[in-house]
Amino acid sequence: MKGNTAILLAWAVFVCCVVVGSLLPATSPVMAVVGRMHVSDKVLHFAAYLALSLLPVIGFRDRRGGVVAGLSMFLLGLFLEGAQHFAPGRAVEVGDVLANGAGVSCGTLLGLPIRAAIAIL
After folding, report:
1. Within 10 A of 109 (CB to CB), how many other CB atoms are there?
2. DSSP one-letter string for 14-73
3. Which of 8, 47, 73, 113 is the most buried (most CB within 10 A)?
4. Exposed, middle or buried by CB within 10 Å (0-12, 13-18, 19+), for 112?
């Protein structure tokens, strides 16, 4: 499997995991495990969206397409945060949106030099 294909496959799997995890009811076993991790919810949001934006930036063949895909993860986060209004026991939080945005920004910016370094190899 080529490097770009593996990165993009990992990105697709991770997008699915974030979508499912974002829409699970608060009482689900997965959310119970996440709650026992003793890690700030905002740190988890930041890290997830950093990865969601970093992977397409380094995985797409076209640099511009990768950046657009990476930045579009902020829209995914907005959609999922709004959809949590309909998930039992979940709530829309502005802090989560801000953490998602910070993660997307950092992931995109971090992805550009990584992409350049990979191209050199």
Report:
1. 15
2. HHHHHHHHHHS-TTSHHHHHHHTT---HHHHHHHHHHHHHHHHHHH-SSHHHHHHHHHHH
3. 73
4. middle
Q: Helix, strand or coil for residue 75?
A: helix
Residue where the block lists tokens 């992931």: 107
Q: Are 77 and 100 in contact (CB under 8 A)?
A: yes
Task: Give the model confidence (pLDDT) of 55-101 as tens digits.
Answer: 999 999 999 999 999 999 999 999 999 999 999 999 999 999 999 99
Please classify residue 97 by burial: count the beta carbons closer than 10 Å to its beta carbon, then call 0-12 exposed, 13-18 middle and 19+ buried.
middle
Contact between 27 and 87 (Cβ < 8 Å): no
One-letter identity of residue 85: H
Sequence length of the chain is: 121
Interhelix angle 41-59/63-83, rounded to 10 degrees, is: 150
State pTM to two decimals: 0.94
Render the burial of 58-68: b for 16+ CB within 10 Å, e for the rest. Answer: bbbeeeeebbe
